[in-house]
Each structure stands twice: as structure tokens, then as C-alpha cells.
Design a protein that fits this description.
The protein is α+β, with helices and mostly antiparallel strands. The chain is built from 8 helices and 2 strands. The protein is elongated and about 70 Å long. It binds zinc ion (ZN).
């Protein structure tokens, strides 16, 4: 299937979006009628991840906020952006059909950098402590106050 035939599933019927791609595609030696399986790795990369994309917001002389875009926003960045920006539950659910949930390889879902997680006080890092039940957090803090923690030697004073 080509792009024109609806080969990009989430945008099957949004021809106006691919109209923007025509010039960029020509520069890169393909067209909207090229079967997607015949695209080179570079062409496919361009289609999916975009090129020279810029977005400008401006205000008209009547005070309306408008948007101007340049270049080609790839299929994937566009989808990610619409997912973030939409206030419609329907649109979000539509986008989710093309997404998978995976734990982050860097932080395993802790949402902190390795450097932050490497810092420990009383043998616990910030993620460990914030995951403790309140009673155990109290025990941990109390232990620090007894001077077990070498970083705050004056904690007993
Ligand atoms: Zn992460």
C-alpha cells in the first residue's frame, strides 16, 4: 500500500496532512503513490520521524492566536504531540491504539535519573524512601536522628 492508498493507518483519511508531505517526498525521491514497502530506510525514517519541522504561534491583528508550521512533522512525533495536547478522551483512546506500555529502560519507571537514584541517605535513595509506608519512614528518619547517618553528624544536637 502507498501513503495515498491509506498505508499509514492512523491517518488513512487525513489527506490534508499528507498534502504537506508531497514536496518533501519529491526532494527525497519518492511520492505518495510509492508503495511503503519500497521506501528506503532513509525515506521511511523521514516519513515516520519528520524533517525541519517548526511550529510558530502568532497573534493576528484581531488578537486571534494562529499557528504556522514549516517542514514535515513525522507521523510519530505528530501522534505523540496530539496525544499530549488533546483534551478529548476519544482522541486519546484512538492514539492509544497505536501505543504500547513498557517500563522505561533507564529508570524502570522510577522517573528519576541514575544520578539522583545513586544518592542514598541511611542506605536508601529517594525512590526507596518515598515508597515506604509512613510508619517505616518515621523509623528511618528516627534512625537518622540517632546519628546513624554520616552525612548529618550534628543531627543529634
Ligand atoms: Zn525513565
Amino acid at each position: 500500500m502507498s501513503i495515498a492508498q491509506g498505508g499509514i493507518k492512523p491517518y488513512q483519511t487525513q489527506y490534508w496532512y499528507f498534502y504537506r508531505l508531497e514536496d518533501v517526498a519529491r526532494e527525497h525521491g519518492f511520492s505518495l503513490n510509492t508503495p511503503i514497502k519500497n521506501l528506503s530506510k532513509e525515506q521511511l525514517n523521514l516519513l515516520l520521524y519528520g524533517e525541519n519541522f517548526e511550529r510558530h504561534k502568532y497573534r493576528t491583528r484581531f488578537g486571534q492566536v494562529r499557528e504556522h508550521t514549516e517542514g514535515w512533522e513525522g507521523v510519530i512525533p505528530r501522534m505523540e504531540r496530539l496525544y499530549r495536547e488533546t483534551e478529548s478522551e476519544y482522541s486519546r483512546a484512538e492514539a492509544e491504539r497505536y501505543m504500547v506500555t513498557k517500563p522505561c529502560l533507564e529508570c524502570q519507571g522510577k522517573r528519576l535519573e541514575a544520578e539522583a537514584l545513586a544518592v542514598t541517605i541511611g542506605e536508601k535513595n529517594i525512590f526507596d524512601v518515598s515508597g515506604l509506608p509512613v510508619s517505616q519512614t518515621l523509623a528511618w528518619v528516627t534512625a537518622l536522628n540517632r546519628g546513624i547517618n554520616p552525612f548529618f553528624p550534628n543531627a543529634n544536637n
